[in-house]
Automatic annotation (TrEMBL):
Assigned protein family: Belongs to the ExbB/TolQ family.
Domain MotA/TolQ/ExbB proton channel: 79-208
Matching PANTHER family: PROTEIN TOLQ (PTHR30625), TOL-PAL SYSTEM PROTEIN TOLQ (PTHR30625:SF3)
Binding partners and assembly: The Tol-Pal system is composed of five core proteins: the inner membrane proteins TolA, TolQ and TolR, the periplasmic protein TolB and the outer membrane protein Pal. They form a network linking the inner and outer membranes and the peptidoglycan layer.
Record-linked Pfam families: MotA_ExbB (PF01618)
Protein's gene: tolQ
Protein topology in the membrane: Multi-pass membrane protein
Any one GO BP annotation for this protein: cell division
Organism of derivation: Candidatus Methylospira mobilis
GO cellular component: plasma membrane
UniProt protein name: Tol-Pal system protein TolQ
Annotated NCBIfam families: tolQ
């Protein structure tokens, strides 16, 4: 092998199997970083939407006016807004129908909010399983490349009479690069997964708290004379 031990040279002269392992790890790392940045923006936006909506909701505005504003705004509602719209839509629709008890109206609104809550949490959880998969499997994929590279290096020694460090150094170096790539792909994915899981958990608690508070408010309105 070439005595040049630069990373580019080692990757270029690596065996096809090790190169394939490196390609998988580079691809996984690139896709992970795309998901990391997009999920960061998505969660931050969801937090801002929730803060703005809560400010409007608790400002004392009539719920019917708030519903009409959200329903007719140009941008698509999301997060806590969707939970409110789903619950109030069912509440307003059933409350106008004769023969329906107040408890049935509140239960229908609760079901609508629960469905909307589940959809919002599913949307926030998108791509997180991929980060978890990259974080858990990349080190083992890199280790496979390392084992394969070292195995090839020792197999090459069997065809020579005298082994020297210069003969095995390139093969071992390329093998260790696979390990480094595995860690490079895994560490950011694991850190992002843990961070975003915590943030989504906080948003979920926030959504659930609003659902319960809004449900209590609807219950009082439904039983008001």
């Amino acid at each position: 092998m070439n005595s040049d031990l630069s990373i580019i040279t080692l990757i270029r002269e690596a065996s096809p199997v090790v190169q394939f392992v490196m390609f998988i790890l580079i691809l996984a790392s690139v896709v992970s970083w795309v998901f990391i940045f997009s999920k960061f923006r998505e969660i931050r936006h969801a937090e801002h939407v929730s803060a703005d909506f809560e400010e409007r909701f608790w400002s004392g505005m009539d719920l019917s006016d708030l519903y009409r504003q959200l329903a007719h705004e140009e941008y698509e509602s999301e997060g806590m807004e969707n939970i409110f719209l789903s619950g109030f839509k069912e509440f307003a629709r059933l409350r106008q129908q004769p023969g329906i008890t107040p408890d049935a109206v509140v239960e229908a609104a609760q079901r609508g909010m629960r469905v909307a809550l589940s959809r919002e949490l599913d949307r926030l959880d998108e791509r997180l399983p991929f980060l978890a998969t990259v974080g858990s499997t990349s080190p083992y994929i890199g280790l496979f490349g390392t084992v394969w590279g070292i195995m090839n290096s020792f197999r090459a020694l069997g065809s020579v009479k005298q082994a020297t460090l210069a003969m095995v150094a390139p093969g071992i170096s390329e093998a260790l690069i696979a390990t480094a790539m595995g860690l490079f792909a895994a560490i950011p994915a694991v850190m992002a997964y843990n961070r975003y899981s915590t943030n989504i958990g906080r948003l979920a608690s926030r959504y659930e708290a609003f659902t319960e508070e809004f449900l209590s408010l609807l219950h009082r309105q439904a039983h008001a004379k």
